[in-house]
Amino acid sequence: MKKTLLMPFRYNLSSKIFGYFTRTLTQFANGRVVLALEGGYELTAICDSAEECVKALCSNGGEITQLSAETLEQIPNNSAQETIQKVIAVHKKHWPCLTGVQGINTSELHWQTISQRFSSLTVHS
């Protein structure tokens, strides 16, 4: 599976995960998602990732691709952990349910549990 290299954080993500992100976002946003393509460092990887995102948008709310147990249990790399901590620090002022949440050493399974707290929230425009 090809990996996409995102700079400067050097996250090593597969193109499939971008489709997963897009499908997940469309469910939270009632199908209202805008994607912007911001350059790329490897043409094949950016094309594959863009293709997965378009497939997700065209799937009409279809099933979210299931991630493997290994992927769900994997701990984010150091750059991702730092980013998660910064995001939590900024947003917990406005989202009390993030108080006490630690992004470091947190697997996707744990984040899915946390995201269930948000399922009852509504977005106002």
TrEMBL record:
One of its GO terms (cellular component) is histone deacetylase complex. GO terms for molecular function: histone deacetylase activity, hydrolytic mechanism. Its EC number is 3.5.1.98. InterPro entries: His_deacetylse_dom_sf, Ureohydrolase_dom_sf. One of its GO terms (biological process) is epigenetic regulation of gene expression. Its main location: nucleus. Keywords: Chromatin regulator, Hydrolase, Nucleus, Repressor, Transcription, Transcription regulation. The keyword Repressor applies. It comes from Globodera pallida (Potato cyst nematode worm). This is histone deacetylase. It is found in: Nucleus.
